[in-house]
Design goal:
Keywords: Carbohydrate metabolism, Glycogen metabolism, Glycosyltransferase, Pyridoxal phosphate, Transferase. Belongs to the glycogen phosphorylase family. By secondary structure, this protein is an alpha/beta fold. It folds into 3 domains: about 100 residues, no CATH class; about 375 residues, Rossmann fold; about 270 residues, Rossmann fold (3-Layer(aba) Sandwich). The protein contains 33 helices and 25 strands. Strands 1, 4, 7, 8, 11, 12, 13, 14, 18 and 19 form a 10-stranded mixed β-sheet that branches. It is globular and about 95 Å long. The protein binds N-[ethoxy(oxo)acetyl]-beta-D-glucopyranosylamine.
């Protein structure tokens, strides 16, 4: 019985492989117009994508038809960023045809790994927030929830990074210069968007006052659909990204009356809107073009949602709030709130209260950071210029809020009104997008337990007093399809054998592994896989940086955007301390370590760039110093991005999660690394706290001040000089940075870091946490010497982080916020 079913499965696989092979060749001929004898890897890759798309598009059609027929309630995820990375292997895995494709290509004389490298990363995001959006839309499809992701079709994604003499150089990322096989243009769903102009007050025949917006400019939004394939299921959702173009009917008068040059200039401006992703992570850009980007995609998306709604319900708005829920990914899309009000009040002529009731059923808001510099505020004058009608609507939202909520609760308290007003008074009036988002949403969430608590206690305490039930938590998660199954196939195969192959959709199953954490056979297998992954990465390091590293050394990995609060410089101080100990004691006993960094700095963030430079200069010195005898290697991997993360994470032994407590909202790299068996060195910050709860205190190296201790230290008046003067080792390494030891002939080149930590006041408490960080690292060193002990801890990490699948995050959102039902897709 068993035998025949295995034989049947093998037959089916053979047929699937054969069909794929035929389809690839067919597309090589008819889609790529080339031939097996002369096709490049790029052409083979594209032909394979086209073959895969036959299945993707089937799923897409079925999904869209089913959702339409069943008139399902759907989630609409509004995000300025989607950090998708590559789609090829992910689509193959989720369709369940990765092995078939690998086989088909092998029979054609090709290595699937070579083809995977042909794809440019789709890097339409900066960091955590954008990658979270990508994991979420994949989980939504996997769990069969009707959902659409909305965003911008940037022509240039996050800049490409290289190093010149250790300094970061940025180049544009024209990721789709030669087209992108995964996207479909939908000219039939184009939208027209207005900006600028003025508002006229008119009275209709009944004497009713009306506001009429006379726009100054019309822009066309062209949608590109990217199918998002769910794992093992038949659901294929879409990510709809808007590209801006000059409107067809725009300004023809000017054009015809001889204003050719002006008309041409307008063209360029309209097309500029989707030209480039702003490269700031956790800082507010404050630029006119950025506000237009936000409004452009929100307006296009809302109109798209309404068009689809009207196809079913005509002008009957009574079901809108039941059918539509919109998640605002941070405040970047908050302008959608006044935009929906405008459409309902001005266009659909609805009464204000009815329109507001709909808005409050529809919007929910996720906060991703507490850093003050990231909390968006727009100069009121700029807002008024770009969106003259929306600013009036915001005034009215604010007037009613202050009158009906704030005044009722705190009568006569003007200080409260000033604090809560959506409009900030002061030298220059500002629109506070966070306030607008809270007032306009029915739910507000943070992204890890501690962060959600701080959102309530530190960011919006009065809003909590007004609406206690509005605030909730949804701890972040990551998709185990990309971040384990696809990126770490060796470990995935071991897990299939040990816990069954359904862990990708039921990650808690990994817990079975914990029973074998002490089993020498499993330990050997697990660590042998880690070793092979490290050998692979060592080859990649050599290729990218020419630096040779020993795969037997401990691989210590810090990968994330470069930011002072993430404290890459604390990591650097540790490296300097070890180096100095070696110079002082040639026999200094330490486990050989490779320190690996991957990080982009925002182009305008000076100190972040200085930190990159310092790490590169220190790396150069240490890597070439014979006295070190390879006990330390330092590698800054250029152009860190999703596809590089996929190579680094499976090879990591140690995961650096060392932010100042209270600053990292959640972190998601921490989850990916633990899932792949790395041991965290981390502070009690963000999701580290929940990771520690899951893996247990013995399998994580926690150090540093807690959130409460950080607050107390700030309040008591932190003086970083105390730590500098009281710790001779710390003083010596900081002073070292001022010499020309690492930058021969150029003393002081690395001094900016020391300055920020002393004269600059050390805002992120690097010096305060230094000692306890080094102690945690010492503990890690000791653990690593005991192979069995280390293996046990690594296995326990993989076994214990099932909670951090993005499927669980999505189910939390469904239950606490979205109230969606899954919808099985009919073939
Ligand atoms: C990040 C947070 O810094 C990170 O801790 C979190 O895991 C991630 O969002 C996903 O929730 N924030 C951003 O990427 C960001 O740009 C500014 O925040 C709004």
């Amino acid at each position: 019985m068993k035998k025949t079913s295995t034989a049947k499965a093998a037959n089916a696989a053979n047929t699937a492989t054969e069909q794929l092979k035929e389809s690839i060749i067919k597309h090589l001929h008819s889609t790529l117009g080339t031939d097996v004898n002369k096709a490049s890897h790029q052409a083979w890759w594209r032909a394979t994508c086209a073959a895969v798309n036959e299945q993707v598009f089937d799923g897409l059609r079925n999904t869209q038809r089913t959702h339409y027929e069943q008139d399902t309630r759907a989630l609409h995820y509004f995000s300025l960023e989607y950090l998708m990375g590559r789609m090829f292997s992910n689509n193959l895995h989720n369709l369940g045809i990765y092995q078939n494709a690998k086989q088909a290509l092998a029979e054609l004389g090709l290595d699937i790994a070579d083809l995977e490298q042909q794809e440019e990363d789709m890097a339409l995001g900066n960091g955590g927030l954008g990658r979270l959006a990508a994991c979420f839309i994949e989980s939504l499809a996997t769990l069969n929830y009707p959902a659409v992701g909305y965003g911008i079709h940037y022509e240039n994604g996050l800049f490409q990074q290289s190093f010149q003499d250790g300094r970061q150089i940025e180049r544009p990322d024209s990721w789709r210069e030669y087209g992108n096989p995964w996207e479909i243009c939908r000219p039939e769903s184009v939208q027209e968007i207005a900006v600028y102009g003025y508002v006229e007050t008119v009275f209709d025949l009944q004497g009713q006052m009306k506001k009429v917006w006379h726009p100054g400019r019309i822009i066309k939004g062209v949608p590109w659909d990217i199918p998002i394939v769910g794992y093992d299921g038949s659901a294929v959702n879409v990510l709809r990204l808007w590209e801006s173009r000059a409107s067809d009917f725009f300004n023809w008068d000017v054009f015809n009356s001889g204003g050719y040059i002006d008309a041409a200039r307008e063209n360029v401006e309209a097309e500029n809107i989707s030209k480039v992703l702003y490269p700031n992570d956790e800082t507010d850009a404050g630029k006119e073009l950025r506000l237009i980007q936000q409004y452009f995609f929100c307006s296009c998306s809302l109109k798209d949602i309404i068009r689809r709604y009207k196809r079913r319900h005509g002008d009957d708005w009574s079901h809108f709030g039941k059918q539509v829920v919109i998640q605002l990914n941070d405040t970047h899309p908050a302008v959608a709130i006044p935009e929906l009000m405008r459409i309902l009040v001005d266009r659909a002529e609805m009464a204000w209260d009815d329109a507001w009731a709909i808005c409050q059923q529809v919007f929910a808001y996720t906060n991703h950071t507490l850093l003050p510099e990231a909390l968006e505020k727009w100069p009121l004058r700029l807002f008024e210029k770009v969106l003259p009608r929306h600013i009036e609507i915001i005034y009215e939202i604010n007037r009613r809020f202050l009158l009906e909520q704030v005044e009722m609760r705190w009568p006569g308290d003007d200080a409260k009104k000033r604090k809560l007003s959506i409009i900030e008074e002061g030298h220059e009036q500002m629109v506070r997008m966070g306030h607008l988002s809270v007032v306009g949403s029915f739910k507000v969430n943070g992204v890890a337990e501690i962060h959600s608590k701080l959102v309530k206690s530190d960011l919006f305490p009065e809003m909590v007093a007004l609406w206690p039930d509005k605030f909730t938590n949804v701890t972040n998660g990551v998709t185990p399809r990309r971040w384990l199954k696809a990126c770490n196939p060796r470990l995935a195969t071991l897990l299939d054998a040990k816990v069954g192959d359904d862990w990708p959709t039921d990650l808690k199953k990994l817990h079975k592994l914990a029973d074998f954490a002490k089993d020498p056979a499993l330990q050997d297998n697990f660590m042998a896989i880690k070793q092979q992954n490290k050998a692979d990465l060592a080859r990649e390091i050599k290729k990218l940086t020419r630096i040779e590293v020993d795969p037997a050394a401990l691989f210590d990995v810090q990968i994330k955007r470069l930011h002072e609060y993430k404290r890459q410089h604390l990591n650097l101080l540790h490296i300097l301390a070890l180096y100095r100990r070696i110079l002082q004691n040639p026999d200094y006993d330490m486990v050989p370590r490779v320190f690996l960094f991957g990080a982009k700095a925002a182009p305008g963030y000076k100190l972040a760039k200085e930190i990159i430079y310092a790490i590169n200069k220190v790396a150069d010195k240490i890597n070439h110093d014979k006295r070190v005898k390879n006990r330390i290697k330092v590698v800054f991997m250029p152009n860190y991005r999703v596809s590089l993360a996929e190579k680094m994470i499976p090879a990591a032994d140690v995961s650096e999660q060392i932010s100042t407590a209270g600053k990292e909202a959640s972190g998601t790299g921490n989850m990916k690394l633990a899932l792949n068996g790395a041991i965290t060195v981390g502070t009690l910050d963000g999701a580290n706290i929940e990771i520690a709860e899951e893996v247990g205190a013995d399998s994580i190296a926690i150090f540093g001040l807690t959130v409460d201790e950080v607050k107390a230290l700030y309040e008591s008046g932190y003086n970083s000089y105390d730590y500098y003067h009281n710790n001779p080792e710390l003083k010596a390494i900081l002073d070292w940075l001022e010499t020309d030891y690492f930058t021969p002939g150029k003393p002081g080149e690395l001094a900016a870091i020391k300055r920020s930590l002393l004269q600059g006041g050390d805002p992120y408490l690097v010096l305060a946490d230094f000692e306890s960080y080094l102690a945690a690292q010492q503990k890690v060193d000791t653990w690593y010497r005991d192979k069995a002990l280390w293996a046990e801890k690594a296995i326990l990490n993989t076994a214990s982080v099932g909670k951090f699948t993005s499927d669980r995050s999505i189910e939390d959102y469904v239950e606490r916020v979205w109230q969606l039902k899954p919808c099985q897709i009919k073939k």
